[in-house]
Structures are given as C-alpha cells and as structure tokens.
Write a structure and sequence with these properties.
By secondary structure, the protein is mainly α. It folds into three domains: about 1-75, Serine Threonine Protein Phosphatase 5, Tetratricopeptide repeat (Alpha Horseshoe), CATH 1.25.40; about 80-145, no CATH class; about 165-265. It has 14 helices and no strands. It has helices at about 10-20, 25-40, 45-55, 60-75, 80-90, 95-110, 115-125, 130-145, 150-160, 165-180, 185-195, 200-210, 220-230, 235-250. This is NADH-ubiquinone oxidoreductase-related. It comes from Hibiscus syriacus (Rose of Sharon). It holds the Pfam family PPR. InterPro entries: PPR_rpt, TPR-like_helical_dom_sf.
Length: about 260
C-alpha cells in the first residue's frame, strides 16, 4: 500500500503492521516492516516492538530476539513496554536465562524493572522449577523497594502445590501473610488444592474453616469443601455448603476427587 501512493509515514507503517498482526497475517506485517525500511523510513521503537510482539504471539522467539537486538544496534534504547514484551516472550517459554539477561540490562541501562517485570521473571523460574531463584527474586524485589503482591507469591505457591510440596507451600503462604499481604481468591484456591489433591483432609478442613468468612463464594473452594467434608464423614457440614452453593447459583463440581494426585508422589 505504501508503494501505491499511501502517505509514507511511520504512523502509516505502524498502523498497517498492527492491522496485519491482529489479523494473523504475520507475513504481511513483516513485508510492511521491510518495505518501510527499504523506502528509507527511520523506524521507531513502536515499529520494531509492534512486529516483535506479533512474532512472540506466533511463537517465533528467535525472530523476535533477532529484531530486538537489531533495534538496539540501531541505537534505539528499549523502554519499559519494549522490555516487558520481550520478557514475556521468554517467560512464557520458561527461558529463565534470557529473562535474567533482560532484567540485568534494565538494572544496568534503565528503565529499572517494575512489579510486572519481576512477575514474568518469577513465571520463568517456576516454569524451569528454579524455586530457590524464585524466592530470591521476591527478596530482591523488597530490597529494590518493590512490594510483592499476591500474584507474585501465588506463582510460587502454585508451583509447590502442583508437585505436592505442601510444607514449602505452607511456608510461602505464611511469608505472604507475614509480609502484610491479604491473600486473594487465587491464593486460597491454590492452598486448598494443594491439600485436597494430595489427600490431606484434616488440613483441608482446617484451612477452609480459617478462610470461610473471608473467601468469596467460589465454585472450586466450595465444591472441594463438600467433597472433603463427605470424605471425613461430616455430612451435615457438606450439606450446608451445598445448600449455600444452590442459594448462590454456583454449580457443584461433581468430579473432584480427594487425593487425586497421591499416586504421583
């Protein structure tokens, strides 16, 4: 289109790259980027990151990394949004080393990593099963004056819960509370799932009874409670929760099974 008389501006280029990218026409987006460059346009950070973002969404990490490096070679310093796009591309693939390098570059060259950048680093570490590094990251956040949130802690909680590391999950949950953070629904679900999936019925009941007054009505939490109360022979408690679910219009999860992951330990 640029070659057919459309005003050749960087704004037009960015718009067309976005249109093609959103339309899942990556080849066309690349063609538009290359055409703009061949016409001698000075491509800005937005043009590069537009295409890098769509490379990432298409799973083309190498192409994204190559273009990011090219942008820096051209003397364009990545801003916060640019770093986040590249960090998320690596984090979603569990490429811890690459995320670490970008975080280090942010510390060295600016802008300093923010809460969401650290969240992506934690995601990468937990994907790589690097739990110690994930915990060190939370400590580093505090040292850098960035307060971790439930989302940061929940990534680590979920990682421990998924593999049945109950003691570690409990320790992280306690640290979350000690830090002064009020657990959210996601944290409640994660901890309860940790107990429920690995057959820790007494701990399930104890945890549920601690959170029942603060947790919002929730399909998984309430369904799990019905199942583990029944498992423990506490039918009245199970019926009471099931009645509450009916009153709230919350569907009951029939297929949950206490101790469903015990065989994988």
């Amino acid at each position: 289109m640029l070659s057919k008389g459309v005003a050749s501006s960087i704004q037009t280029c960015n718009t067309l790259i976005s249109v093609y990218g959103r339309g899942h026409k990556l080849d066309k987006a690349v063609e538009m980027f290359n055409l703009a460059r061949s016409l001698g346009m000075t491509l800005d950070e937005k043009a590069y990151m537009n295409l890098i973002s769509y490379y990432g969404k298409a799973g083309k990490r190498d192409e994204a990394a190559s273009l990011f490096a090219k942008m820096r070679e051209e003397g364009i310093n990545p801003g916060m949004v640019s770093y986040k796009i590249m960090i998320n591309i690596y984090a979603s693939a569990g490429l811890c080393d690459e995320v670490e390098k970008l975080i280090e570059a942010m510390h060295r060259d600016g802008p300093s990593p923010d809460s969401s950048a650290y969240l992506s680093l934690l995601q990468a570490y937990t994907e790589c099963l690097k739990y110690a590094e994930a915990e060190i990251t939370i400590t580093s956040m505090r040292k850098n004056g960035i307060l971790p949130t439930c989302a940061h802690f929940n990534l680590l909680l979920y990682a421990f819960a998924k593999v049945g590391m109950t003691t570690e999950a409990e320790r992280v949950y306690k640290e979350l509370i000690t830090t002064g953070i009020t657990p959210d629904q996601a944290c409640y679900r994660t901890m309860l799932r940790c107990y429920f999936d690995y057959g820790l019925v007494e701990k399930s009941i104890s945890f549920f009874e601690k959170i029942m007054d603060t947790a919002e009505p929730d399909r998984y939490i309430m369904s799990a409670a019905v199942h583990f109360y029944k498992y423990a022979g506490k039918e009245p408690e199970a019926r009471s929760i099931q009645d509450s679910m009916h009153n709230f219009g919350i569907p009951f999860l029939e297929n949950l099974k206490v101790g469903s992951k015990m065989k994988t330990l």
